[in-house]
Structures are given as structure tokens and as C-alpha cells.
Amino acid sequence: MSDKDTAPEFPEFIDTHCHLEMAQFAGDREAVISRAFSEGFSALITIASDPASIEQALDIARGHDNIYCTVGVHPHEARLVDEKILAGIRQWASDPKVVAIGETGLDFHYDNSPRDVQREVFTEHLKIARETGLPVVIHVREAEQDALKIMNEEGVTHGVLHCFSGSPALFEYAVDKGLHMSIAGPVTFKRALELKDAAARIPDDLLLLETDSPYLAPVPMRGKRNEPSYLLHTAREVADLRGITLQDVARITTLNARRLFGIGELPQSGEITYRIRNSLYLNITNRCTNRCGFCVRTTSNFVKGHNLRLEREPTAGEIIAAIGDPTKYDEVVFCGYGEPLIRLDLVKEVAGWVKERGGWVRVNTNGHANHVHKRNVLPELEGLVDEYSVSLDAQDSSTYDRLCSPTFEGAYDAVVKFIRDAAKDTVVKATVVSSEGVDIDRCQEIADELGATLRVRKLNIVG
């Protein structure tokens, strides 16, 4: 694909939900699998849906290094489930190729099994998932209220809403409980407005991709038999909806799949440079003078699939070597998992090097640098920084202190002064996160008064 040519760091996809065991693939199953891996996929998860398909899914998974499977019974076939089958699922769950329980859930559209039986079997699957520690793959169709009631009762937090519909109620539950949402081909359909909106807003760390093949082929393959390689069309749509690149989507969803299903290796070392869209970010420190409750660094090592937890702070020479040609990027951004201007001398050295070579420099800062260094540092950065992105974060000091827990008194006033002074000579964007208690309208007024533009970031969405 041409996307690989434009990004050497192109990561691999994982199709988290396909049905390779189904009859639609009987004639060319190995060719379908080969096509997926030739497109850069690192793994496929084939989903069991009835008692007979469990053994077939296991056989396929055991026959390929990078194919895994689930064990469970789809709500359509819930009427077939008895104690023997449930015992079998518990036994199969111990197989190293089994990465989840399911597909299970409720489907009141077709009602192929009685609703009371579906509820009972769904509950039993959730109990098995809890007992085994495996994530659960959940199917919900026209049964939201019942599904939410059961999931709340069973405390479901570890799993995925497969082929996510975009339902606001399910979205709210998933975000609140940390449940993943998997986007399939329907997101490419013109009229899937609710799903498109949800796909744009799912928190980075809860986003997955799937095909649900052989069903639900995405545009432009709609109407054909779906297969894992078609996931790229879905991924491109999701990238467009989120305003990021295909490479970003692949990296984010592959990391999420690895973490949720326990497959493959996670990046262990913190990156000192990392790419999002066509911006190159510089992760020069993990130190910060704030302890913001909404900051992703408090809950994860990862931003958009990049590990940013540093083992040590890099030198200027290491950063410069990692940048390469700065003109390849729209901008070079001092950001990462800390406050970059804590390392003021390094910022000046690296920014000077970037500017000498024609690059554009942005500094993302909390605006505390003058307090940290006991002087006005802005004159020292003149000509080195093209743009500042400053975390205003609140409309007053009490709200700021509650949200950001700064390490010194008067932090909010320091931020406001930094924005005002920086905006005299440089482009400044004041940023706020749409957290509880933040008055966005008042923040807009403050930004206007200070000569800055305002950017509002959504909670749980990074970048």
C-alpha cells in the first residue's frame, strides 16, 4: 500500500474479529489468510460463534503462528447451550491460543434463541470470563437496556463491544468502565452518522478495528464477501474521522489489541521522538510541575501507541540524531510526558539546530518556566520558537489548582502572565481540557484578552 511508502515506521494491523472458520472461506481460506499477512497484519483473531465452530476456530489458530481464537456461543445459538458446553468453554479457555470468551451477548433483532435463554447464557459467559481472567467479546443488537443491565450486574470492564453500533448509551458505559469499542465496515457507509460520530470520539486507548468477515464489507467492497485485508478501508475512514493518519490508527489499535488480548510484545522502551500525523514530537523529560488529574501520563505509558515512559532523559545530541531532517515534518514539537521547558538549555540547543535547518518549532508547555528558572525565559527563546501551546486549563486559580495540583502557589497567575508575554511576539494557543467545572466560554474570553487563540481538547482524547 502507498501508505507504507510514506511512513517507514508503518505498524501492523490486527483484525480483532473475523470468522475464518465459516463456510464462506472453505474454498480459499489459506489465500485469505495470506493476503492479510502480506498487507502487514501481525495477527488475526477468529471468533467462535457456536459449539461446532469452537473446534474449527481452535484448529485454524493452532495451525498458524499469528492467528488466535475465542471460545463461546453467539446469542443466535444460545438455545444450544447446556452445562456440558459451558464446561467445555471453561476447559478450552486454558488453551494458549484462546485469547477471549465469546462471541456472546444479546440479539433481539432476529430472536433466533428465546430472550430469557440469551440473557442466561450471556450471564454465564461473563462469569466464565471473570473466572478465567480473559476479556469478553460482546454482541449487542436491539437489546441495549437488557445488555447494560446484565453488564452492570456482572461488573463487566474487561472486553470489547464488537462491531460497535455507535449507541450513546453503550458508548457512555464503555468509556466509564474502560470497555473497548471495535469499529467495523459499517463506519464507511454514508448514512452511519451516529457510528461515524462515535468513531471520532472513542478514547484512543479503547479503540479497536475489526472486519466481522465474511460479513459487513466496507465501502468500496460493500456487497462482496468481506475478509481481513479489507480492514484497511475501515481504518482509513476512522483515520479521516479522527483527523489522524492511517499509520496513527494502525499503531493505536494494534497496541490496544495486544494489551487487551495479551498477544505479541508491547514496546518496552520510552521513545525520545515520536510521530503523530506529520508532526515530530520530542519527549525530553517526564518531569512536570503539575499533577493534572486528566493527564494520560498518570494512567498509561502510551500516547497514540507510543511508549513515552523514559528510563532516562536524553541528551541534546541524542535528540538531534533522532530528528534527522526536520523539514520532513510540518513541525517539530517539544512535548512528551513532561514539561519541556524544565530543560531550558536543551530546548534552546535543539530548537536552534532545527531552525538553522529550516524546521518549524512548537513548544507545548504548562507556562511555569519563569517560576522554575526564576527569570523571564521568553527573551532567550526568541527566534527559536515559532509557536507556543500553553495549558491554560481553567478560568480561575481555584479551578486550576483543583484540576492541575501544581507544586507551587500562584501557578495559575504564572500561566496567564506567560501567555500574555509570549503572545506579544509569538503565535500562542491556549489549551483547555473539557473537564468538569471548566467554563469554556470564560476561557475563550481570557484567551482573547491575552492575545491567544483557544483550543479545547476533549477529555480522554490525546493529541
Structure, explained:
- With 463 residues, the chain is α/β, with parallel strands linked by helices.
- The protein folds into two domains: 2-261, Metal-dependent hydrolases (TIM Barrel), CATH 3.20.20.140; 273-457, TIM Barrel.
- The protein is built from 17 helices and 17 strands.
- The protein has helices spanning 2-6, 29-38, 51-62, 83-92, 115-132, 144-154, 168-177, 193-201, 231-242, 246-261, 316-323, 344-356, 369-373, 378-381, 397-404, 411-422, 440-450, and strands at residues 14-18, 43-46, 67-71, 98-107, 136-141, 159-161, 180-183, 207-209, 273-276, 279-282, 302-303, 306-307, 331-334, 361-365, 387-391, 427-433, 453-457.
- Strands 1-2-3-4-5-6-7-8 form an eight-stranded parallel sheet. Strands 9-10-13-14-15-16-17 form a seven-stranded mixed sheet.
- The longest helix has 18 residues, at 115-132.
- The protein is elongated and about 75 Å long.
- It starts with a helix and ends in a 6-residue tail after the last strand.
- Residues 1-10 have low confidence and may be disordered.
